Amino acid sequence: MALSRYKLGELIKVVDERNTYGIKDFYGINIDKEFMPTVANTEGLDESNYKVVRENRFVFSGMQTGRDECIRIGMYLGKTPIIVSPAYTTFEINATDAVLPTYFFMIFLSKEKDRLGWFYSDGSIRSNLDWDRFCDMELNLPDLPTQQKYVDIYKAMVANQQCYERGLEDLKLGIDAVVDEIKHKSETTLVRELLKEVDVRNESGEITIAHGINIAKQFMPSVADINGVDLTKYKLVEKNQFAFSGMQTGRDECIRIALNKAGTPIIISPAYTVFERKNDTVLEEYILMWFSRGESDRRGWFMSDSSIRSNLDLDRFYETQLPIPDKDVQKSIVDIYNVYTERKRINEQLKSQIKNICPILTRGSLEENLDKERGKNYEF
Fold first, then answer.
1. Superfamily covering domain 187-324
2. How far is CA 316 from the centre of its chain?
């Protein structure tokens, strides 16, 4: 049959089920259209007002669609119900004879649909996509057998990625167990006894790309406007040196520290502190691994001051203690941790590839449906 054209409002129905069950698993949706535990403080909230999300139910938020150029929509696949903010809209597929739920979700895993949502969003400062405007968007749909064929391909890719991710979680549990043992059995040493400050400036001006540190503790090109900035005052970070920023540690619940593993130096703002190790009793990568743990970030937040930005002062950072085992043990745990971080990167790459393939799959399903229709027209 030929492609069928529908408005979204003809395919979906709002489901407003409130949490009368005492569910306390608060979730939200990120810009990758994934469910994630909420970062908001839920202490004292009345969870009975929150909306229940069950398997195959969708969650939509039109807020900031234009700003983020992203339609925040998620399809929940878990067996155990969760709850989301009352500000979200929860809905299900109503016209199951016209579209499969997974195929519907695949359609929205595309930049094209995100841009269309941005186009449809209002002119407010947040550029929201109103629910009525969302329901007014139109879709071309192939027949159900064709949809099912491409849904099966998508589900097979997701299953492979999730299998890889489960192995990743098992590896993380192993690392946590080893680190816990180190924490309780090794002598601790203050950071001031492990690291010393280095202050070398970019006096030649040869390096012209400034870097900062993100919350993943990685160097990244600075997003600040450096036109007219005197880069000769910026600090050099050589190979195997650290850069540290105590600013906003409490706000972000993250100690911003990064290790330059590259063979070439980079430059950072004079507001950062540059360190190198004092002696060879500890590996640089072991120090970075220790500060990459959630527990270390939480301690940094606890130690930060009471200013509006909750900074972690350098003197307080120096008071942090690290358990230092034998160097062979350090190297072993670092090697395992490096395997974990590389697999974690691959897992994120797999998820990104699946998302990028979805527009190709949906376009292929439409073309296949049209080809079948053209073939029928040529039959005698």
1. DNA methylase specificity domains (3.90.220.20)
2. 29
